[in-house]
């Protein structure tokens, strides 16, 4: 049994063009996540989908029961793949994610998703704190421009800064091509 799981964080409709909170480069990132997903399924790795819903209809995106809160078709779950519903940035907070991983004896997580600076970052840091080895597939993640103190920080810079921080102390950070070339090695 594989000790590795692919965790797809918040690849949901509202993050795509026409959604309520579109991200920069989400279509490319989701395409790469789909390639990683296909490889994980072939390898027999556990696949866990994480889906975010805010608790209220007044949320800016991912409102309860909306089409925008559904997992995007590029990475649709199969019947045997668990879906973890979360209401916080951290995928482990008040969810059964850790229980699912532990039930399957998982030691290593491969993480893709959105947003790089929020839910991906929080999930990777929590995974590390919980003792999992983590690999982030950086080009299978996306974010959007951010603003601080009147300065707009382009999405590419936000993404790069967070990937650099994760790589420094929390995870191995690789491209889709690097992951696909080495994923069969386990």
Q: What is the oligomer described by this structure?
A: single chain
| CATH architecture descriptor | 3-Layer(aba) Sandwich
Supply the CATH superfamily name.
Isochorismatase-like
Share of residues in helices: 25-40%
Shape: globular
The gyration radius over C-alpha positions equals 15 Å
Low-confidence stretches: none
Query: What is the CATH C level class, in words?
Result: Alpha Beta
Question: Strand order across the biggest sheet?
Answer: 3-2-1-4-5-8
Our estimate of the beta-strand percent is: 15-25%
Taken in chain order, the helices and strands follow as EHEEHEHEEEHEH
State the separation between the terminal residues, measured CA to CA: 11 Å
Q: Mean of the pLDDT scores?
A: 96
Any idea of the CATH topology? Rossmann fold
Q: What's the β-strand tally?
A: 8
Tally of discrete structural domains: 1
The major pleated sheet works out as: 6 strands, parallel
Work out the helix count: 5
The structural class is: alpha/beta
Architecture overview:
α3 (116-129) links the parallel β4 (108-114) and β5. The protein has one domain (4-185): Rossmann fold. The mean pLDDT is 96. It has a six-stranded parallel sheet. The protein has a two-stranded antiparallel ribbon with strand order 6-7. The radius of gyration is 15 Å and the shape is globular. It has helices spanning 26-43, 97-103, 116-129, 155-169, 176-182; strands at 4-9, 46-52, 83-86, 108-114, 133-142, 146-148, 151-153, 172-174. By secondary structure, the chain is an alpha/beta fold. Keywords: Hydrolase. GO terms for molecular function: hydrolase activity. It comes from Caulifigura coniformis.
């Amino acid at each position: 049994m594989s000790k590795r799981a692919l965790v797809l964080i918040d690849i949901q409709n509202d993050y795509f063009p026409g959604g309520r909170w579109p991200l920069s480069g989400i279509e490319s990132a989701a395409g790469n996540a789909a390639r990683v997903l296909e490889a994980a399924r072939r390898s027999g790795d556990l696949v866990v989908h994480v889906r975010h819903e805010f608790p209220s209809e007044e949320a800016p995106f991912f409102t309860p029961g909306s089409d925008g809160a559904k997992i995007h078709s590029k990475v649709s779950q199969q019947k045997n793949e668990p879906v973890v519903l979360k209401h916080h940035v951290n995928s482990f907070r008040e969810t059964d994610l850790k229980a699912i991983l532990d039930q399957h004896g998982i030691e290593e997580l491969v993480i893709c998703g959105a947003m790089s600076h929020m839910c991906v970052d929080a999930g990777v840091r929590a995974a590390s704190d919980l003792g999992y080895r983590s690999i982030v597939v950086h080009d299978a993640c996306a974010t959007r421009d951010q603003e601080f103190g009147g300065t707009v920080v382009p999405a590419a810079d936000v993404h790069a800064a967070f990937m650099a921080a994760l790589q420094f102390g929390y995870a191995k950070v690789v491209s889709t091509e690097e992951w696909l070339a080495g994923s069969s090695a386990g």
